[in-house]
Automatic annotation (TrEMBL):
Family: Belongs to the sigma-70 factor family. ECF subfamily.
Pfam families: Sigma70_r2, Sigma70_r4_2
Organism: Yinghuangia aomiensis
Top-level taxon of the source organism: Bacteria
Gene3D superfamilies: 1.10.1740.10, 3.10.450.50, Winged helix-like DNA-binding domain superfamily/Winged helix DNA-binding domain
Sequence ranges assigned to domain RNA polymerase sigma-70 region in this UniProt record: 7-66
Name of the protein described by the UniProt record: Sigma-70 family RNA polymerase sigma factor
The keyword Transmembrane helix is annotated on this UniProt entry: no
Subunit relationships: Interacts transiently with the RNA polymerase catalytic core formed by RpoA, RpoB, RpoC and RpoZ (2 alpha, 1 beta, 1 beta' and 1 omega subunit) to form the RNA polymerase holoenzyme that can initiate transcription.
Boundaries of every RNA polymerase sigma factor 70 region 4 type domain copy: 105-156
Keyword Metal-binding: no
């Protein structure tokens, strides 16, 4: 097998590692490309291409994460990961770990970890790398990596509830939610929302947000019921789609351009959080991006709507 063939075989794994460390599709793709360039220039043949390439993409991602965190400190409004419609890496033996680590909630928890903790957690808990390979990847001793793994696992376990194990039940609840959303059915929406449900929106100041920080089942149900009918009247379509391994949807304008993505956190048979990514910079990999400001003006006219561009 040639180097190119070996790399292409491992590309899905490398992207999945980088995306979980970085939370950005574009940066993960760049990290994978940089990994290929470094391997192409390497004069030696590693004993394990998988271990070697995983170590390289991890180190690159750690370096990128350091500069990305500085940028996020200046970010306008709440920051959410870039939505991922399909994870290219599949492993039936790790399917639960892969799905759980891909959720928006898990990626946001990873943001609380140091870059080293984050890398160690991803390699160990998600992809089941051995500590010798992890130590080589992050440049620390095996003992130090074990301590990092314990610390990271504790922080992650403390911060998140487990999502519904029954995938079918979760999908059915999401389908009912999107039906009620399309119909503007306040009662139907309220029935599916947790009492303390909250909405979170990421526009980066580059798209209108409509009361993005709404909370409570009554407030959220009324807001949602009022929004989509206005958008549907000008041709906006809600397209259910799994996003980051969770029930979600893509909103498109009448020209099939992407307006936003939505993801639903479901726990205890209710929707706990609704997260929307509207920043056009974070949607370009999903498809051609709509002019969200123009769509908003068409939907609301001189009313303006409850716009909060800062989040």
């Amino acid at each position: 097998m040639t180097r190119t063939e070996e790399f292409e075989e491992l590309r899905p794994l490398l992207f999945s590692i980088a995306y979980r460390i970085l939370g950005r599709v574009t940066e993960a793709e760049d990290a994978v490309q940089d990994t290929w360039l470094r391997w192409e220039m390497s004069p030696t043949e590693p004993a394990s291409p998988r271990a070697f390439l995983s170590a390289v993409v991890t180190r690159i991602s750690i370096d990128v994460l350091g500069s990305a965190r500085i940028q996020r400190e200046r970010y306008v409004g709440p920051w959410l990961p870039e939505p991922l419609l399909d994870d290219p890496y599949e492993n039936p033996e790790r399917s639960a770990e892969l799905a759980d680590s891909l959720s928006m909630a898990a990626l946001l928890l990873l943001e609380r970890l140091s870059p080293l903790e984050r890398a160690v957690f991803v390699l160990r808990e998600v992809f089941a790398f051995g500590f010798p390979d992890i130590a080589a990847a992050v440049g620390r001793s095996e003992a130090a990596c074990r301590q990092l793994a314990v610390r990271a696992r504790r922080h992650m376990d403390e911060g998140r509830p487990r999502f519904e194990a029954d995938r079918r039940e979760r999908e059915e609840l999401a389908a009912r939610f999107f039906d009620a959303f399309r119909a503007g059915d306040v009662d139907g929406l309220r029935e599916l929302l947790a009492a303390d449900v909250r909405m979170a929106g990421d526009s980066g100041g580059k798209a209108p947000l409509l009361a993005s920080q709404a909370a409570g089942s009554d407030n959220v149900a009324q807001l949602l019921a009022a929004l989509l009918p206005r958008f549907r009247s000008i041709g906006v379509v809600l397209e259910p789609h799994e996003i980051n391994g969770q029930p979600g949807a893509v909103l498109r304008d009448r020209d099939n351009k992407v307006l936003s993505t939505l993801t639903l956190d479901i726990f205890g048979g209710r929707i706990q959080t609704i997260r929307g990514v509207l920043n056009p910079d974070k949607l370009q990999h999903v498809g051609p991006v709509a002019d969200a400001w123009a769509v908003h003006r068409k939907a609301f006219g001189s009313e303006g709507g409850a716009v909060d561009s800062s989040g």
